[in-house]
Amino acid sequence: MSRVQTQQKILDAAEGLFAESGFNDTSLRQITGRAEVNLAAVNYHFGSKKALIQAVLQRYLQVVMPRLEQQFDALLARQQPSTLSEVLAVFVQPLLELKQVKPQGTTLFLQLLGRGYTDVQGHLRKFISHHYGSVLNKFVLLVQQSCPSLSNAEIFWRLHFSLGTVVFTMASSEALFDIAAADYREQADIASVIRRLLPYLAAGIAAPTIDSKQLDLMAQATF
Amino acid sequence: MSRVQTQQKILDAAEGLFAESGFNDTSLRQITGRAEVNLAAVNYHFGSKKALIQAVLQRYLQVVMPRLEQQFDALLARQQPSTLSEVLAVFVQPLLELKQVKPQGTTLFLQLLGRGYTDVQGHLRKFISHHYGSVLNKFVLLVQQSCPSLSNAEIFWRLHFSLGTVVFTMASSEALFDIAAADYREQADIASVIRRLLPYLAAGIAAPTIDSKQLDLMAQATF
DNA sequence: GTACATTTCAAACAGTTGTTTGAAATGGGG
DNA sequence: CCCCATTTCAAACAACTGTTTGAAATGTAC
Fold this sequence. Notes:
The structure is a homodimer of 223-residue chains. With 223 residues, chain A is mostly helical. In chain A, helix 1 crosses helix 2, helix 1 packs across helix 4 and helix 6 crosses helix 7. In chain A, 77% of the residues lie in helices and 0% in strands. The structure holds a DNA duplex (30 and 30 nucleotides).
């Protein structure tokens, strides 16, 4: 079997299992079993499990990230600042295009992203900010321009709140789909979740700030 | 050593390690090592690691949940529906009161909650909805009353988005504190994060809905 | 078809995990 | 003090993990 065939079989098997069960709870024996490949093949072709995880993510990142950067650049080249909704909407097209790479591509990638941020804390964060930090900086800059009234610290926190929303939703998307289908007769797919997500994120990021005095009043209002 | 002393030492050691490294990445040998207790003590006193995890969470849940329910009941007994901000503000007081149970109680509990939802998917969700489902239903009812224009399905999704925000933020709160301190000279503690969280969540949950036509326009606006 | 490099394979490695065991120690009530 | 239940302890258990090994098979160029 040729080099690329084996590598591809491993990547395909691995990404499915990783998305289902997370990185920690997926063993190399499960992966090589599903890929119909010898156990040692992973270490031979990728070096280690960690490297395999990165390779699985890289297959999608190297498609999505340049598309995102290109769109960010287009917005940055404008004269007047973009609205927050415009900035967030940039993600939709590149993510949905992953379906062309592979039928379930969008769902798989977002689930993997969710797993990567929740399973082993820090690893994926460092990997992404190291390889694609410049792209993310452009995104942050666009958000800052669209919300000039917010301090940079406030934006930092709210963007991480938003990251949490996305990552958690995607990591548990399969369970949420099931619940939504059972309780609300929803035929939920990844595109419909994205559609629901954007207004939530836009409103949260651009929310008015309140000072601590107001918060204290709110907290005591129910006594 | 008396029964309760050993159990307490195990619980104290376990909750700290669980909060730091998550449930999967914390071994019983680490726990019994820190607790200065024999390895077999966990299985003798709690039965299994899974039961220990639940016991760790129960110590806080059985304090927080009755307090929450009591506040929800107070709001439900009102004549006019509460505002969303009022409903969300209910969480502040009971969570901060955990500091009286134990100095770092609030932070620990929220980190554990985050770990529980991100580490082993589903387990904690089932456990909480089984033991405290009625309390959560009252919360959902209050949110529905405060946002009459939103469909129940929309509220379902937005509450899970919010759960993701909280859970992810808390699970990685230590890392976020460090970044915030380094980049924005922020002295961030759990109370200040809650203060930042509430307006974000309130705005996100109450965000105006957009139809798919508008979304498509947004997505194509940058071409 | 021979020579050489690449790839596969079964087997074993060393490490960790949660759990169980049976004896030793400790506890308090009669 | 003795008895009996409770609790501790060191040791071993079986199952799993990612990784390495060295020989066998396959592929490729001459």
